Amino acid sequence: MARRLNPWRWVVLGLATLYFLVPLAASVVFTVDVPGQGLTFDAYAEILSADGFVSGLLLSLELAAATIAVVLLLMVPALVALRLGAPRLRPVVEVVCSLPLVVPPIAFVAGIATVLRWGPDHLSRTPLFQTFVAVQDPSFPIVLVLAYVVMALPFVYRALDSGLRAIDVRTLVEAARSCGASWPQALLRAVLPNLRPALLNAAFLTLALVLGEFTVARLLGFQPFAVWIYTVGGSQAQLSVAVSVLSLLVTWALLLALAGAGGRTRTASSRG
Amino acid sequence: MTAALPHADVAPTASVKRRRRAPGWLAVAPLLAFTAVAFGIPALAMLNGAFTVQDRATGTTSYTLGNLTTSLQGPYLTALAGSVKLSAVTAVLGVALGLPLAQAVVSSRSRALRDAVLTGSGVLANFGGVPLAFAFVATLGNAGVLTRHLGLADAGWSLYSFWGLVIVYLYFLIPLMVLTITPALDGLRSQWREAARNNGATTVQYWRHVALPVLAPSLLGGLVLLFGSAFAAYATAAAMVGSTVPLVTLQIADAISGNVLVGQENVALALSLDMVLVAGLVMAVYLPLQRRSARWLDA
């Protein structure tokens, strides 16, 4: 097989390279070669000083950190417990974590918007109203964290489940327990270190999801990173494309770093 | 000695399970409670809203099927059909183009190429949304680099059309297909190809009678996954075409943000319910297929 040089393979790979690289290359050209101005790097220089960039990016990063923390705190104990016992709960958790796949983000946000309207409509006299207001604080909208955790559940479930499949949780916990460790100690010092690649994977997927999320944030009227790019795109085309290119490069770098950090152990353990 | 080993293994397992039952519930409970609030309440609100109508004058609400029938008529039906058509076309093209690409990568046996393509696919499959739309606007839009240098506008090209959207959607659907189908292609044993060749089969015959039937569940699963992914996509279309191409996601967004008549919110909820039904159908087809192909590959 490998001896025969296969011409169609090179045609396929060549066409694919062309299709996937041309838009990226053209985007870079678009930002650098402005008609009437010649070669300029103004678009990239403007990014940092652009109105709303820093606050939008910071908001996205804060939301991502909060989402990752909440989703891991909810999922890790639950999935470890499923591995240790409680087999009847396994299908329940599996279904709960797959449900968000059936509800597209736009339908989900339609539901959230309806619930949020209950606040002013029905609850304005009750103490619950304050909760509704606090949840929608534009400087840190908790409602987005709630939505993003739900949207991240399927990916995090898959990442953690395959990670847990590769290690023998029960033996690890039993070994730790018979050495005198308490339950939290066994979890923190025996199970979690062995789960590191899966945890990193889950965290990265969640980070990518939150940084790129647009639908829910825009329709609820908040201004994180992705919504900011969209808003800027209307008036400053060069700037918005420059930020788009950079955001792709940053995502790429993160994924490569993850592959470097967890790749070797992951390929080694997934065979077992 | 060897007979004693599995025996010794069983006893502590059973005792751990008994001791662990209550904590098992305790550890899962927060997850279930959270999803009940953060997912269950909005989902129920959507379901309830899809079937109710509020009388503006009296403020009373009543149950009705009117929203659902409205959501399947006129511009709403056009949008729904537009979404289904776009998703079907992009899913079929994504499978047809992703399969040869994945096969070229798997059969090359180059570790570096494989890693590069799979990592790249992981990034590009998630590279939907606004940045993707802007990258294509910069490339093929009205003032795009290729449009200007190749004079595409004179040839009647417009990115802000159905086929423009198809080209953009394929940018994240093909990588998604590569990621989905690569494990299945890895599962094709080289012995099968050798056996077919020894029996005098040509490459075409091998693909038609051996490889494709084995791959069929994975291919169908990929098709359904791509369809669902294109069907749910909103950000790319919103940032690119605005509303020149009728899509159900754009209609829902318009209705939620009050760009259309007041009182259409509940039609938006009915449209959302339509989407959930389609997505649910997609999952109902996809999950059994995925399980089936997983069984093949493990065997």
From TrEMBL, chain A:
Its main location: membrane. It is found in: Cell inner membrane; Cell membrane. Residues 57-258 form the ABC transmembrane type-1 domain. The chain crosses the membrane at residues 55-80, 92-119, 139-160, 198-221, 241-261. GO terms for cellular component: plasma membrane. InterPro entries: MetI-like, MetI-like_sf. The keyword Metal-binding does not apply. One of its GO terms (biological process) is transmembrane transport. Belongs to the binding-protein-dependent transport system permease family. PANTHER family: INNER MEMBRANE ABC TRANSPORTER PERMEASE PROTEIN YDCV. This is ABC transporter permease.
Automatic annotation (TrEMBL), chain B:
GO terms for cellular component: plasma membrane. The chain crosses the membrane at residues 25-47, 86-106, 118-140, 160-185, 206-234, 267-289. CDD domains: TM_PBP2. Residues 80-286 form the ABC transmembrane type-1 domain. Pfam families: BPD_transp_1. One of its GO terms (biological process) is transmembrane transport. PROSITE patterns: ABC_TM1 (PS50928). It is a multi-pass membrane protein. Belongs to the binding-protein-dependent transport system permease family. CysTW subfamily. This is ABC transporter permease. It is found in: Cell membrane. It comes from the Bacteria. The keyword DNA-binding does not apply. The keyword Nucleotide-binding does not apply. Keywords: Cell membrane, Membrane, Transmembrane, Transmembrane helix, Transport. InterPro entries: MetI-like (IPR000515), MetI-like_sf (IPR035906).
